[in-house]
Amino acid sequence: MIDELKIHQFRNISTAHLSLAECNVLVGKNGSGKTSLLEAVFLLSRGKSFRHHEPKRYITHHQHRCAVWANTRQGQMAIQKTLDDKGFATTIIKQHGQHVSSQSVLSFALPTLLIDPSGMELLEMGSNSRRQLLDWLVFHMEHEFYGEWLSYQRLLKQRNILLKSPAIQKRLPELYAWDYQLASHAHKIHEYRQTVFNRWLGYFDKMLSCLLPHCAGLIWLSYQAGFDEKVGLFDVLRQRITADVELGYTRVGTHRADISVVFKQSGDVRFKEQAANVLSRGEKKLLITALKLSQLQLICETGIRLVVMIDDIDAELDEWAVQTLLKTLMELPCQLFITNLNSDIVSVIHDVQKQLGSTKTMAVFDVKDGTIIKRI
Ligand SMILES: Nc1ncnc2c1ncn2[C@@H]1O[C@H](COP(=O)(O)OP(=O)(O)OP(=O)(O)O)[C@@H](O)[C@H]1O
Ligand SMILES: [Mg+2]
Fold it and tell me: pLDDT by residue (tens digit) across 11-26?
Protein backbone atom coordinates (compact mmCIF):
# COMPACT_ATOMS: atom_id res chain seq x y z
CA MET A 1 0.00 0.00 0.00
CA ILE A 2 1.14 3.53 -0.85
CA ASP A 3 0.79 5.92 2.12
CA GLU A 4 2.30 8.96 0.46
CA LEU A 5 2.79 9.84 -3.20
CA LYS A 6 4.73 12.62 -4.92
CA ILE A 7 4.53 13.37 -8.63
CA HIS A 8 6.70 15.88 -10.46
CA GLN A 9 6.22 17.14 -14.03
CA PHE A 10 4.09 14.28 -15.23
CA ARG A 11 1.72 15.32 -18.06
CA ASN A 12 -0.40 18.22 -16.72
CA ILE A 13 0.55 17.48 -13.09
CA SER A 14 3.31 19.92 -12.26
CA THR A 15 3.63 18.81 -8.63
CA ALA A 16 1.44 16.71 -6.38
CA HIS A 17 2.01 15.52 -2.83
CA LEU A 18 -0.76 13.23 -1.61
CA SER A 19 -1.49 11.42 1.59
CA LEU A 20 -3.43 8.31 0.54
CA ALA A 21 -6.06 5.99 2.01
CA GLU A 22 -6.97 2.37 1.23
CA CYS A 23 -9.65 3.53 -1.19
CA ASN A 24 -8.81 6.70 -3.13
CA VAL A 25 -11.45 8.31 -5.31
CA LEU A 26 -10.37 10.90 -7.88
CA VAL A 27 -13.04 13.11 -9.34
CA GLY A 28 -12.58 15.69 -12.10
CA LYS A 29 -13.66 16.89 -15.53
CA ASN A 30 -12.28 15.65 -18.86
CA GLY A 31 -8.63 16.57 -19.19
CA SER A 32 -8.21 17.40 -15.49
CA GLY A 33 -5.42 14.82 -14.88
CA LYS A 34 -7.14 11.74 -13.40
CA THR A 35 -5.69 9.19 -15.81
CA SER A 36 -2.31 10.95 -15.56
CA LEU A 37 -2.18 10.22 -11.83
CA LEU A 38 -2.88 6.52 -12.44
CA GLU A 39 -0.30 6.53 -15.21
CA ALA A 40 2.29 7.97 -12.82
CA VAL A 41 1.67 5.19 -10.26
CA PHE A 42 1.83 2.63 -13.08
CA LEU A 43 5.17 4.11 -14.23
CA LEU A 44 6.60 3.70 -10.74
CA SER A 45 5.52 0.06 -10.61
CA ARG A 46 6.22 -1.04 -14.18
CA GLY A 47 8.77 1.43 -15.54
CA LYS A 48 6.53 2.33 -18.47
CA SER A 49 3.28 4.08 -19.22
CA PHE A 50 0.13 2.24 -20.26
CA ARG A 51 -0.57 4.96 -22.83
CA HIS A 52 2.74 5.70 -24.59
CA HIS A 53 6.12 4.06 -24.44
CA GLU A 54 8.05 7.23 -25.16
CA PRO A 55 8.84 9.28 -22.02
CA LYS A 56 8.71 12.54 -24.00
CA ARG A 57 4.93 11.96 -24.29
CA TYR A 58 4.32 11.86 -20.54
CA ILE A 59 7.01 14.24 -19.26
CA THR A 60 5.31 17.65 -18.98
CA HIS A 61 5.69 19.64 -22.21
CA HIS A 62 8.83 21.84 -22.33
CA GLN A 63 10.35 19.96 -19.36
CA HIS A 64 13.07 17.33 -19.59
CA ARG A 65 12.44 15.33 -16.42
CA CYS A 66 9.59 13.68 -14.53
CA ALA A 67 9.65 11.83 -11.23
CA VAL A 68 7.34 9.72 -9.11
CA TRP A 69 8.11 8.90 -5.48
CA ALA A 70 6.12 6.81 -3.02
CA ASN A 71 6.31 5.91 0.62
CA THR A 72 4.87 2.40 0.86
CA ARG A 73 4.56 -0.38 3.44
CA GLN A 74 7.55 -1.91 1.59
CA GLY A 75 9.60 1.26 2.10
CA GLN A 76 10.35 4.19 -0.19
CA MET A 77 10.63 3.87 -3.94
CA ALA A 78 11.15 6.29 -6.79
CA ILE A 79 11.56 6.55 -10.53
CA GLN A 80 12.93 9.41 -12.56
CA LYS A 81 12.99 9.74 -16.35
CA THR A 82 15.28 12.36 -17.90
CA LEU A 83 15.45 13.38 -21.55
CA ASP A 84 18.79 14.37 -23.12
CA ASP A 85 19.17 16.97 -25.92
CA LYS A 86 18.39 14.34 -28.56
CA GLY A 87 15.22 13.22 -26.80
CA PHE A 88 16.68 9.93 -25.48
CA ALA A 89 15.56 9.04 -21.98
CA THR A 90 17.58 7.74 -19.04
CA THR A 91 15.97 6.12 -16.04
CA ILE A 92 16.93 6.20 -12.38
CA ILE A 93 15.16 3.72 -10.09
CA LYS A 94 15.55 3.76 -6.32
CA GLN A 95 14.31 1.66 -3.44
CA HIS A 96 14.96 2.68 0.19
CA GLY A 97 17.03 5.57 -1.23
CA GLN A 98 19.46 3.18 -2.99
CA HIS A 99 19.85 2.78 -6.76
CA VAL A 100 18.48 -0.48 -8.15
CA SER A 101 19.41 -1.81 -11.58
CA SER A 102 16.21 -3.56 -12.56
CA GLN A 103 12.63 -2.34 -12.72
CA SER A 104 11.49 -5.82 -11.69
CA VAL A 105 12.51 -4.94 -8.09
CA LEU A 106 9.79 -2.26 -7.95
CA SER A 107 7.35 -4.42 -9.93
CA PHE A 108 7.63 -7.09 -7.23
CA ALA A 109 7.45 -4.60 -4.36
CA LEU A 110 4.56 -2.57 -5.76
CA PRO A 111 2.35 -4.77 -7.97
CA THR A 112 -0.30 -2.79 -9.84
CA LEU A 113 -3.36 -3.83 -11.77
CA LEU A 114 -5.11 -1.45 -14.15
CA ILE A 115 -8.69 -1.66 -15.34
CA ASP A 116 -9.49 1.00 -17.92
CA PRO A 117 -12.26 1.38 -20.48
CA SER A 118 -9.82 1.75 -23.37
CA GLY A 119 -8.39 -1.70 -22.70
CA MET A 120 -10.49 -3.50 -25.33
CA GLU A 121 -7.37 -4.68 -27.17
CA LEU A 122 -7.23 -7.57 -24.73
CA LEU A 123 -10.13 -9.11 -26.63
CA GLU A 124 -9.98 -7.37 -29.97
CA MET A 125 -6.29 -7.33 -30.94
CA GLY A 126 -3.49 -9.87 -31.42
CA SER A 127 -2.04 -12.17 -28.79
CA ASN A 128 0.42 -9.66 -27.23
CA SER A 129 -1.80 -8.18 -24.54
CA ARG A 130 -3.36 -11.55 -23.59
CA ARG A 131 0.10 -13.10 -23.24
CA GLN A 132 1.18 -10.12 -21.11
CA LEU A 133 -1.90 -10.57 -18.93
CA LEU A 134 -1.03 -14.21 -18.24
CA ASP A 135 2.68 -13.42 -17.81
CA TRP A 136 1.93 -10.71 -15.26
CA LEU A 137 0.15 -13.32 -13.15
CA VAL A 138 2.90 -15.91 -13.63
CA PHE A 139 5.55 -13.26 -12.81
CA HIS A 140 3.96 -12.71 -9.38
CA MET A 141 3.18 -16.35 -8.65
CA GLU A 142 6.26 -18.21 -9.93
CA HIS A 143 9.42 -16.36 -9.02
CA GLU A 144 11.70 -18.45 -11.27
CA PHE A 145 9.60 -17.49 -14.28
CA TYR A 146 11.10 -14.03 -14.85
CA GLY A 147 14.68 -15.31 -15.09
CA GLU A 148 13.62 -17.99 -17.59
CA TRP A 149 11.66 -15.42 -19.59
CA LEU A 150 14.65 -13.03 -19.73
CA SER A 151 17.01 -15.80 -20.89
CA TYR A 152 14.51 -16.91 -23.54
CA GLN A 153 14.10 -13.34 -24.86
CA ARG A 154 17.87 -12.86 -25.03
CA LEU A 155 18.39 -16.09 -26.98
CA LEU A 156 15.46 -15.36 -29.27
CA LYS A 157 16.93 -11.96 -30.14
CA GLN A 158 20.31 -13.56 -30.97
CA ARG A 159 18.60 -16.27 -33.01
CA ASN A 160 16.66 -13.70 -35.05
CA ILE A 161 19.87 -11.74 -35.76
CA LEU A 162 21.55 -14.96 -36.88
CA LEU A 163 18.60 -15.90 -39.11
CA LYS A 164 19.09 -12.64 -41.01
CA SER A 165 22.84 -13.16 -41.37
CA PRO A 166 24.08 -13.80 -44.97
CA ALA A 167 26.28 -16.62 -43.60
CA ILE A 168 23.38 -18.42 -41.93
CA GLN A 169 23.85 -21.69 -43.91
CA LYS A 170 27.41 -22.01 -42.59
CA ARG A 171 26.37 -21.04 -39.07
CA LEU A 172 23.57 -23.58 -38.68
CA PRO A 173 25.49 -25.69 -36.08
CA GLU A 174 25.80 -22.53 -33.94
CA LEU A 175 22.06 -21.92 -34.33
CA TYR A 176 21.21 -25.50 -33.28
CA ALA A 177 23.32 -25.11 -30.13
CA TRP A 178 21.33 -22.01 -29.19
CA ASP A 179 18.06 -23.74 -30.10
CA TYR A 180 18.80 -26.41 -27.54
CA GLN A 181 18.97 -23.78 -24.77
CA LEU A 182 16.06 -21.80 -26.22
CA ALA A 183 13.87 -24.92 -26.13
CA SER A 184 14.91 -25.74 -22.58
CA HIS A 185 13.83 -22.25 -21.37
CA ALA A 186 10.66 -22.47 -23.50
CA HIS A 187 9.53 -25.69 -21.83
CA LYS A 188 10.03 -24.26 -18.34
CA ILE A 189 8.15 -21.06 -19.27
CA HIS A 190 5.36 -23.20 -20.71
CA GLU A 191 5.12 -25.29 -17.53
CA TYR A 192 4.90 -22.19 -15.31
CA ARG A 193 2.27 -20.64 -17.56
CA GLN A 194 0.23 -23.83 -17.77
CA THR A 195 0.26 -24.38 -13.98
CA VAL A 196 -0.78 -20.81 -13.20
CA PHE A 197 -3.38 -20.79 -16.02
CA ASN A 198 -5.01 -23.95 -14.63
CA ARG A 199 -5.29 -22.36 -11.17
CA TRP A 200 -6.65 -19.12 -12.65
CA LEU A 201 -9.48 -20.84 -14.59
CA GLY A 202 -11.60 -21.67 -11.51
CA TYR A 203 -11.31 -18.09 -10.23
CA PHE A 204 -12.25 -16.75 -13.67
CA ASP A 205 -15.38 -18.90 -13.92
CA LYS A 206 -16.56 -17.70 -10.50
CA MET A 207 -15.86 -14.05 -11.32
CA LEU A 208 -17.64 -14.38 -14.67
CA SER A 209 -20.76 -15.77 -12.92
CA CYS A 210 -20.65 -12.75 -10.63
CA LEU A 211 -20.05 -9.97 -13.20
CA LEU A 212 -21.67 -11.46 -16.32
CA PRO A 213 -24.09 -14.10 -14.97
CA HIS A 214 -25.89 -14.56 -18.30
CA CYS A 215 -22.58 -15.57 -19.92
CA ALA A 216 -21.56 -18.10 -17.25
CA GLY A 217 -20.84 -21.42 -18.92
CA LEU A 218 -20.71 -19.73 -22.33
CA ILE A 219 -17.26 -18.14 -22.26
CA TRP A 220 -14.27 -20.43 -22.32
CA LEU A 221 -10.60 -19.69 -21.91
CA SER A 222 -7.88 -21.88 -23.34
CA TYR A 223 -4.14 -21.52 -23.28
CA GLN A 224 -1.90 -22.22 -26.31
CA ALA A 225 1.82 -22.70 -25.73
CA GLY A 226 2.92 -21.10 -29.03
CA PHE A 227 4.44 -24.38 -30.28
CA ASP A 228 3.54 -28.06 -30.33
CA GLU A 229 4.56 -29.12 -26.80
CA LYS A 230 4.30 -32.84 -27.65
CA VAL A 231 6.86 -32.54 -30.44
CA GLY A 232 9.02 -30.17 -28.36
CA LEU A 233 10.36 -26.77 -29.45
CA PHE A 234 13.83 -28.05 -30.40
CA ASP A 235 12.37 -30.45 -33.00
CA VAL A 236 9.76 -27.94 -34.14
CA LEU A 237 12.51 -25.38 -34.80
CA ARG A 238 14.54 -27.99 -36.73
CA GLN A 239 11.55 -28.82 -38.92
CA ARG A 240 10.88 -25.15 -39.58
CA ILE A 241 14.43 -23.97 -40.19
CA THR A 242 14.02 -23.29 -43.94
CA ALA A 243 10.85 -21.25 -43.35
CA ASP A 244 12.49 -19.29 -40.49
CA VAL A 245 15.55 -18.48 -42.62
CA GLU A 246 13.26 -17.24 -45.40
CA LEU A 247 11.23 -15.13 -42.97
CA GLY A 248 14.29 -13.88 -41.10
CA TYR A 249 12.68 -14.43 -37.70
CA THR A 250 11.45 -17.20 -35.41
CA ARG A 251 7.79 -17.85 -36.05
CA VAL A 252 7.01 -20.35 -33.29
CA GLY A 253 7.89 -20.53 -29.60
CA THR A 254 6.70 -19.36 -26.21
CA HIS A 255 6.82 -15.77 -27.50
CA ARG A 256 3.73 -16.69 -29.58
CA ALA A 257 1.68 -18.13 -26.70
CA ASP A 258 -1.92 -16.98 -26.47
CA ILE A 259 -5.14 -17.30 -24.54
CA SER A 260 -8.24 -17.71 -26.62
CA VAL A 261 -11.49 -16.31 -25.25
CA VAL A 262 -14.28 -18.17 -26.99
CA PHE A 263 -18.06 -17.94 -26.79
CA LYS A 264 -19.72 -21.34 -27.15
CA GLN A 265 -22.43 -23.43 -25.62
CA SER A 266 -21.03 -26.44 -23.79
CA GLY A 267 -21.12 -29.44 -26.12
CA ASP A 268 -22.34 -27.34 -29.07
CA VAL A 269 -19.77 -27.62 -31.83
CA ARG A 270 -21.91 -25.70 -34.32
CA PHE A 271 -21.66 -22.30 -32.67
CA LYS A 272 -18.19 -21.24 -31.63
CA GLU A 273 -17.03 -17.66 -32.02
CA GLN A 274 -14.39 -15.33 -30.58
CA ALA A 275 -16.05 -13.61 -27.58
CA ALA A 276 -14.92 -10.25 -29.05
CA ASN A 277 -17.25 -10.82 -32.04
CA VAL A 278 -20.32 -11.64 -29.95
CA LEU A 279 -20.36 -9.38 -26.88
CA SER A 280 -21.47 -5.74 -26.57
CA ARG A 281 -18.96 -3.10 -25.45
CA GLY A 282 -20.28 -3.08 -21.88
CA GLU A 283 -20.17 -6.89 -21.79
CA LYS A 284 -16.62 -6.84 -23.13
CA LYS A 285 -15.62 -4.40 -20.39
CA LEU A 286 -17.16 -6.72 -17.81
CA LEU A 287 -15.42 -9.74 -19.33
CA ILE A 288 -12.06 -7.95 -19.22
CA THR A 289 -12.80 -6.91 -15.64
CA ALA A 290 -13.61 -10.55 -14.79
CA LEU A 291 -10.29 -11.65 -16.33
CA LYS A 292 -8.37 -9.11 -14.28
CA LEU A 293 -10.27 -9.37 -10.99
CA SER A 294 -10.03 -13.15 -11.02
CA GLN A 295 -6.24 -12.75 -11.30
CA LEU A 296 -6.40 -10.30 -8.41
CA GLN A 297 -8.33 -12.77 -6.23
CA LEU A 298 -5.83 -15.53 -6.97
CA ILE A 299 -2.85 -13.28 -6.22
CA CYS A 300 -4.44 -11.94 -3.01
CA GLU A 301 -4.81 -15.53 -1.77
CA THR A 302 -1.05 -15.99 -2.01
CA GLY A 303 -0.65 -13.07 0.42
CA ILE A 304 0.53 -10.49 -2.14
CA ARG A 305 -1.08 -7.07 -1.76
CA LEU A 306 -1.80 -5.03 -4.86
CA VAL A 307 -2.65 -1.51 -5.95
CA VAL A 308 -5.73 -1.66 -8.18
CA MET A 309 -6.53 1.28 -10.46
CA ILE A 310 -9.90 1.65 -12.14
CA ASP A 311 -10.12 4.46 -14.63
CA ASP A 312 -13.55 5.98 -15.41
CA ILE A 313 -15.34 3.37 -13.36
CA ASP A 314 -18.85 3.99 -14.64
CA ALA A 315 -17.98 4.42 -18.33
CA GLU A 316 -20.08 1.90 -20.28
CA LEU A 317 -21.26 0.09 -17.16
CA ASP A 318 -24.77 0.15 -15.76
CA GLU A 319 -25.57 0.81 -12.10
CA TRP A 320 -25.79 -2.88 -11.20
CA ALA A 321 -22.41 -3.62 -12.82
CA VAL A 322 -20.68 -0.72 -11.01
CA GLN A 323 -22.12 -1.89 -7.67
CA THR A 324 -21.05 -5.50 -8.29
CA LEU A 325 -17.56 -4.38 -9.28
CA LEU A 326 -17.26 -2.16 -6.20
CA LYS A 327 -18.48 -4.92 -3.87
CA THR A 328 -15.88 -7.32 -5.23
CA LEU A 329 -13.10 -4.76 -4.88
CA MET A 330 -14.09 -3.66 -1.38
CA GLU A 331 -13.85 -7.21 -0.12
CA LEU A 332 -10.34 -7.79 -1.46
CA PRO A 333 -7.29 -6.76 0.58
CA CYS A 334 -5.94 -4.25 -1.94
CA GLN A 335 -5.46 -0.49 -2.22
CA LEU A 336 -7.83 1.18 -4.67
CA PHE A 337 -7.55 4.19 -6.98
CA ILE A 338 -10.88 4.90 -8.63
CA THR A 339 -11.42 7.77 -11.08
CA ASN A 340 -14.73 9.21 -12.23
CA LEU A 341 -16.05 12.27 -14.03
CA ASN A 342 -18.56 13.20 -11.35
CA SER A 343 -18.90 13.00 -7.59
CA ASP A 344 -21.97 10.70 -7.60
CA ILE A 345 -19.62 7.76 -7.35
CA VAL A 346 -18.59 8.85 -3.83
CA SER A 347 -22.03 8.15 -2.34
CA VAL A 348 -22.27 4.87 -4.31
CA ILE A 349 -18.97 3.76 -2.74
CA HIS A 350 -20.14 4.85 0.73
CA ASP A 351 -23.35 2.81 0.29
CA VAL A 352 -21.42 -0.27 -0.82
CA GLN A 353 -19.07 0.11 2.16
CA LYS A 354 -22.04 0.36 4.52
CA GLN A 355 -23.75 -2.71 3.01
CA LEU A 356 -20.57 -4.76 3.38
CA GLY A 357 -19.48 -3.31 6.70
CA SER A 358 -16.16 -2.56 4.97
CA THR A 359 -13.48 -0.91 7.08
CA LYS A 360 -11.37 0.34 4.15
CA THR A 361 -10.30 3.93 4.81
CA MET A 362 -11.43 6.34 2.11
CA ALA A 363 -10.13 9.61 0.66
CA VAL A 364 -11.68 11.74 -2.06
CA PHE A 365 -9.57 14.00 -4.27
CA ASP A 366 -10.76 16.75 -6.61
CA VAL A 367 -8.65 16.98 -9.74
CA LYS A 368 -8.62 20.27 -11.65
CA ASP A 369 -6.09 21.40 -14.30
CA GLY A 370 -3.45 19.05 -12.94
CA THR A 371 -3.95 20.10 -9.32
CA ILE A 372 -5.09 17.39 -6.93
CA ILE A 373 -6.77 18.47 -3.69
CA LYS A 374 -7.95 16.17 -0.92
CA ARG A 375 -11.47 16.78 0.39
CA ILE A 376 -11.64 17.22 4.14
N1 LIG B 1 3.18 15.75 -21.83
C2 LIG B 1 2.16 16.52 -21.42
N3 LIG B 1 2.40 17.70 -20.79
C4 LIG B 1 1.39 18.48 -20.35
N5 LIG B 1 0.10 18.16 -20.47
C6 LIG B 1 -0.19 17.00 -21.09
C7 LIG B 1 0.80 16.12 -21.58
N8 LIG B 1 0.21 15.05 -22.15
C9 LIG B 1 -1.11 15.26 -22.01
N10 LIG B 1 -1.37 16.41 -21.36
C11 LIG B 1 -2.67 16.99 -20.95
O12 LIG B 1 -2.96 16.52 -19.66
C13 LIG B 1 -4.35 16.66 -19.42
C14 LIG B 1 -4.83 15.54 -18.52
O15 LIG B 1 -5.02 14.34 -19.22
P16 LIG B 1 -5.70 13.08 -18.56
O17 LIG B 1 -5.78 12.04 -19.60
O18 LIG B 1 -5.00 12.74 -17.30
O19 LIG B 1 -7.15 13.65 -18.20
P20 LIG B 1 -8.37 12.91 -17.50
O21 LIG B 1 -8.71 13.69 -16.26
O22 LIG B 1 -8.11 11.47 -17.36
O23 LIG B 1 -9.53 13.18 -18.59
P24 LIG B 1 -10.71 12.22 -19.12
O25 LIG B 1 -11.82 12.35 -18.13
O26 LIG B 1 -11.07 12.87 -20.42
O27 LIG B 1 -10.20 10.85 -19.27
C28 LIG B 1 -4.99 16.77 -20.78
O29 LIG B 1 -5.52 18.06 -20.95
C30 LIG B 1 -3.86 16.54 -21.75
O31 LIG B 1 -3.99 17.30 -22.93
MG1 LIG C 1 -8.94 9.81 -18.24
Answer: 999 999 999 999 999 9
Q: Are residues 28 and 82 in the same domain?
A: yes
Index of the ligand 1 atom closest to the CA of residue 32: 21
Nearest-10 crossing angle of helices 319-331, 281-301: 10
Out of 249, 280, 303, a domain closes at 303
As a whole number of angstroms, the distance between CA 263 and CA 278 comes to: 7
Q: Are residues 20 and 143 in the same domain?
A: no
Structure confidence at residue 269 as a pLDDT band (50, 70, 90):
low
How many angstroms is it from 55 CA to the middle of ligand 2? Answer: 18
Spacing, Cα 155 to ligand 2 middle (Å): 39
Which structural domain range is residue 375 located in?
1-111+305-376
Asked if residue 32 has its Cβ within 6 Å of ligand 1, the reply is yes
73 and 211 in a single domain? The answer is: no
Amino acid identity, position 51: R
pLDDT in tens, 218-257: 999 999 999 999 999 999 999 999 999 999 999 999 999 9
Cα–Cα–Cα angle for 105, 310, 374, nearest 5°? 90
86 with 1, same domain: the answer is: yes
